[in-house]
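go over my protein:
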Amino acid sequence: MTRSIDRREKTPTALGAVLTLGALALCLVAITAIHEKTAVASPDCQDRDGDGYGRGCPAGGDCNDLDPTIHPGRAEICNYRDDDCDTIADEVGCSERPVDSTPCTVTGGGFWMGSETGADDEKPLHQVQVSQILIDRHEVTNRRYRECVAAGICREPMLVSSVRRGEYFGHQKFDDYPVIFVSWEQADTFCRWAGGRLPTEAEWEKAARGTSARIRTYPWGEQKPDCSLANMGGPGSCIGDTDRVGRRPAGASPYGAMDMAGNVWEWVADWYDAEYYAQSPARDPRGPDTGRLKVMRGGCWKSGASSLRVSCRKAELPETWAPNVGFRCAYPEGGEK
């Protein structure tokens, strides 16, 4: 009897031990699996700013991996930046001016063009006389360009998306954003349909710089660029894409032209010649008669401070189209469609 009781009493104890060891083994397997998963995921997480978001990170991607204050889920504030990575800046509770379609008058007369300290193709600094023109206050928008497409004159942009937005050109939310993915020929066609033409380099630079005796580095003056002045790139990147035209009134030029620094590079009329300034006419220069490359001005949403200078020149094949390239028009005899 005693031996039997001993067996009955020991049996559940042994079973409990087995169950306990089994549960412990399962826990160890689970912990090991988690550890192995973490060990595999961690090397793939490219989080340069330490906010937990980045390429391959468990928390998800980051729209600006150079700034820990910008990432998905962050509260949006009124600072001209896309704080929460939804491709829109200042969309919650921030004041927004209506887009003014009235062109700016750029008075005739002289101004200093080029730079003494910039790239070689910006030299020499020289004085130029230009005739009075009107110039678009804003870069040509999706809304305006669609009108030309609907009229059967303009071709649609080469792509209808943008870098971070699958729908862009045809989406009502982006009506007042600059049209992109357009070649020089597409820009030229639109401006002629609108009753104008692309501005020359000299006209564009005067509209951006003004006539002050003091050489102006940026459209607004000498203050270092930031997102309150221009939609720019780099560590202080604002959107990582285009932004609504005219959002930054503090960045306006002396004539009231908006976004002449940042947002999109803008096609101008001239063929490119790195040495043109050395032989440029003193009045209404129109660039070389022929060439292989066309000029862009103004920098874009990817640009750092150097490309936002009013004297900066960029040369591209006229067939080029890109997510950071747009344009505005000039109207020598007035009028704007």
